[in-house]
Amino acid sequence: MVKELVRSVERLARSERESAWREMAKQIAHEIKNPLTPMKLSVQHLIRSWNDNKENFDENLEKVTHTLIEQIDNLSFIASEFSNFAKMPKAFNEEINILDTIRNTLNLFANTENVDFVFEHESEEILVFADKEQLSRVFINLLKNAIQSIPENRHGKIGISLVLNGKMVRTSITDNGKGIPEDLQGKLFTPSFTTKSSGMGLGLSIVKNIIESFGGYITFKTKVNHGTTFIFELPVYVKAMVDGTGR
Ligand SMILES: Nc1ncnc2c1ncn2[C@@H]1O[C@H](COP(=O)(O)OP(=O)(O)O)[C@@H](O)[C@H]1O
Ligand SMILES: [Mg+2]
Question: Which CATH number does the domain housing residue 219 bear?
């Protein structure tokens, strides 16, 4: 009976994942289709103004090409975000010192204007079993959100702390940004939810998927106008448990 129960829980998890995927694919298709009609209309308009020998053709040409290029860049961004997301199941997990990933990501953001980063950690080596690229995507997304949360007139302070919590390693990323109002808190991890004019709303849902695929979980604490802390835990990788040699 227990086995049967486990199997049906697994089936349920799988069907939930599949329907989340379908929902996601629908939203992406919608995002891609959105600008296509206006793009087509503006090209048709341009052709007409060429055929009619309109005097402001030059001006029109410039305007239309500018918009088209902007839209094309946008579409290509959506496509690459989605393919990053779609790549997820093909994770190549290996033992990684999570401190290395954090340091590499911090290097990437080191030149961010008006923001200071502080990294605090208990030890020099904490191993997790994860896909390197995906783990770094987690940090990139969370740091980018933290940076973007800081109001223009405020000096940004972003702290990363690593602590061991039993068999888990806990990472906290704290910003002194604008915080998250209560009515939005339940929506953060939903694909496509964004409050940014140029946001895709995929970052946190990708992050959550990745962390859960490594056997971890993510949560957050926030206070409006004071800042937000994203906290996630990953299982610490213990060599002896895996290869059985106790090395
Ligand atoms: N550190 C943070 N501080 C304040 N709000 C945040 C933070 N991180 C995420 N959010 C909120 O969650 C939303 C979704 O984030 P995300 O999934 O990364 O998408 P995006 O960054 O493209 O908007 C953001 O638009 C923002 O409203
Ligand atoms: Mg984001």
Answer: 3.30.565.10
